[in-house]
Write the structure tokens for this entry.
Amino acid sequence: MKRIRVALAQIGTDIGDFEVNAKKVLSCVKNARLKGADLIVFPELCLNGYPPEDLLLKPEFLESGMKALREIAQNVGDIVVVLGFAEKEVDIFNSAAVIFDGKVTGTYRKHFLPNYGVFDERRYFGRGIRACVIDYGGLRIGVGICEDIWHTGGTTERAIAAGGAEIMLNLSASPFERGKHERRRRLLEARSVDSKAVFVYVNTVRAQDELVFDGGSCVYHPEKGLIASAPRFKEDVLFCDVEIGFDSQKLLEPTHRYAEYSPALPVQLLRIEKILDGEKPELEVRGAPVQYGAVEELYEALTLGLSEYVRKNGFEKVVVGLSGGIDSALTAALAVEALGPEKVTGVFLPSKYTSALSRALASSLAENLGIELIEIPIEDALESYRKSLEGVVEEGISGTTDENIQARIRGNMLMALSNRYGWLVLATGNKSEFSMGYCTLYGDMAGGFALLKDVFKTQVYEIARYLNYKHGKDVIPEGIIEREPTAELRPGQLDTDSLPPYFILDPVLEAYIEGCMPVDEIVRMGYDRSVVEGIVTRVDLNEYKRRQAPVGLKVTKRAFGRDWRMPISYLVPGTILEFLISGEELR
Amino acid sequence: MKRIRVALAQIGTDIGDFEVNAKKVLSCVKNARLKGADLIVFPELCLNGYPPEDLLLKPEFLESGMKALREIAQNVGDIVVVLGFAEKEVDIFNSAAVIFDGKVTGTYRKHFLPNYGVFDERRYFGRGIRACVIDYGGLRIGVGICEDIWHTGGTTERAIAAGGAEIMLNLSASPFERGKHERRRRLLEARSVDSKAVFVYVNTVRAQDELVFDGGSCVYHPEKGLIASAPRFKEDVLFCDVEIGFDSQKLLEPTHRYAEYSPALPVQLLRIEKILDGEKPELEVRGAPVQYGAVEELYEALTLGLSEYVRKNGFEKVVVGLSGGIDSALTAALAVEALGPEKVTGVFLPSKYTSALSRALASSLAENLGIELIEIPIEDALESYRKSLEGVVEEGISGTTDENIQARIRGNMLMALSNRYGWLVLATGNKSEFSMGYCTLYGDMAGGFALLKDVFKTQVYEIARYLNYKHGKDVIPEGIIEREPTAELRPGQLDTDSLPPYFILDPVLEAYIEGCMPVDEIVRMGYDRSVVEGIVTRVDLNEYKRRQAPVGLKVTKRAFGRDWRMPISYLVPGTILEFLISGEELR
């Protein structure tokens, strides 16, 4: 029976901030040594920040990282540090440095490079073709990075089968999406059981632009299952004593091992002389981390993602146009959760179509949230546009043209406040609207960050109700949740004038966008063909609007960001040209 | 001596328009047979249109293509057709179908899949691992696709070395960029000489969203050099009689062949029974195609790209805000070249800062171009904004806030015309401005298409002068070319108040953006360090604006489109937080 104490450094780092990142790494290392850890593992590309995207094409970005790595190495003593970084050699690699006693003992280079969804790793990285095993006083520890664990036949299996690894480390930067945490857990459990190795999974946390990282680092034992887990959505260093003593079992069941499936990837062995017998300080006993339900998970992801965007870009405050409707109410409420009420300003921008109900609801929302509420009427500006345009547009301004002008005046007013005070404008559109183009370019789409961009309307309601439940009172007034959705850009307007009911729209959108399902298959789910065709056509036709949308947080399998790369110009089946782009907009 | 008549079908097809694309292919095939061609070659992914991007993830898109391919095959008789298409098998491949006598004889699957710049091919395609050679009556013809030709050690060399190909086909969809055509030519010549094979290069033409395809298909003979070439920037079917009779020479110089460098890729041989002895109708003699200078090339790319975007998206007209400055003048003038004056409307949107000179120049431009000119004053709207905001912004509205409101009112007015009449708004910003963030979100950045997005300011002047030269008169008034650049958003404003002179700015931007050069290297080119650092910092900090910019045409090595994937949130070296994002915008 051998025993090793492992520290899982579930931290987040800022892209390009090498000095601060290195300090943070060293501070975790120091703390881990004090607590008797033999080994500390950091997330994928931890030193550079994740994902660095095209910064990886800048030589100085890579060199700064390499320099920071050398400096860290010099400050590491009697503890094994496994740290993710971008390695600049003849090619660039997504690597893990194994550091011990003042130097980098070796590196493992990621084998499986994801190039789907939001990932473009083959754009940047060369493929590693060696498995890597650390021999630490006779105990064998394999190293793998993120995607390596999701596929069979690669360096992870090879490290275990040919390299004899009994513990397998996985350094990850795995973006959050609804329900993905459970999939990760099941995968780790299966891998651990199949290969009879302990899996140590270290995920990063916090957020970067459109990606949220939810942590949830953990250790799976092939016989005992989950033996340690870190909280989600926040930084943590998790300590775990791993005991190895199932060797004989393993040898009796060779068919359970991956050996015969593995390709002939060479194994690099890094020997670290060590006698595994030291006494350790006792670890404090911690309770199991909080579990999250489906809606809670969304709530956590959205608040974390927003607070990180605000912090990283140095904003003091955010501003939200409050219409008295549910989207802007939830956006403001989540902003208050993320940043506190003193950092959120609401702006009510009434026109003559704005109802007394909207005013009352916006005002009661602001009161509940404890945020400042500014009122800027837009009627005069609208009138001046109408007058200016009357001279050139014979029939005067009406219909969607008039509606869009209103939305754009509101956008301009919010941007003026942003320009004047440096506030970040939060756009309030949801995924159902962005999908259907039920939104105005430069109008309600204006802003630096669209918090609900990947949240369907039906989920907007769920999160609002959860938020009220969490607070034990109606933070978001029930009147806002109960009223029928309206853009209030003309008298008596309702969303359902232009859109199918959300309980039909949202599942069809999900099947089409996230499921990549063809119309025929969606119809077989039980929806009317003409409804499905209408929805799909509108999604296709509104790509030009989405292309100019603000960034927002990915919380589903496929968001309208880096994982949605559609052409604007193409023949959308079943459409006629007049129906195409911009002409009379669809709202 | 064997002789074969090859047709190079330099055509463009529309993404997803399978019916029309198939008809176009068959019409070229029919024409080629009439002219006695043995073989007709189409561009890469010709049947689906290029680049299909995430449409390749839709099963129905792939199936429609496969169906269209089968229908085409049934209509092909005694001529070999080599056609690019997306092949749906267990995986998806970027393939060339070899069609003869009613059926698909075999397919070649692209080996080198580009995954850099604008290309994401490993996101979609599996890698082909067989070379492909057609044995056509004893004459051996290898098949390759685009990138295959740019690298050694792949299927192209293997087809020649192991498969004995004497003619090598290359199906391409190679996007235009400044000077790339010459690089292609030099490469083809070198490949042909090295391998002693005739290279038949077929490139697509026309444009798709941000990419322009410039054609320039050609045939290189290892001894005679360029033996046929198609025009650039327009569709064409080029015929070329290729004579093969240098075999003995080849055998004497084995070291000149690729054989020993090739990996062990298997060669697939497609046998087509044929006796190569038929009499052929005589080919008409054509003069050499037009050659283009550097600026002419840009002019052709911009006009072609715009006319294609307008056609594909079904617009009747475009609208341009004319300020009396050079960018809007060139945008309007190029639109007239691309679409004709009756399809272009100019809008003059004066404020009280607008000079009499600007009015006179805008009006004389519109007259020269023969386009309608509308005037919409923005002073009243601006006043109403100021009044509405006065209540909430204590010190009143001034500075960049006031400037941005003006720009946004202009954007709104143009969008109102777009909404009312279905016109496409052309944004007028150039690459120097987009780089530096010297532009207003939702203001002068508003529009469906930014024609000059990838054209530096210094090139804007060059193209303007070229256009006047081409017409033999000042289409763009000399006064517009001569005046000092100004945004006219406050009294006496000049670009040089906020930017380094363009003759310094543009080469620094080019080195940084296209050359990926670090600051130190740019300084060594002879620029002042503080100037370079100032420029680079502003490029980095303005990513948030570019992320919401309209699409525009790529004409350089690296445009702000699919080939620029920068994070918004990262530590820009040498900046302080207050300077970051949106706060007081930089203009």
Remarks:
- Confidence is low (pLDDT under 50) at residues 251-262, 576-587 of chain B.
- The first helix of chain B runs from residue 18 to 34.
- Chain B touches chain A through 97 residues (CB under 8 Å).
- Chain B has two domains: 2-272, 294-495.
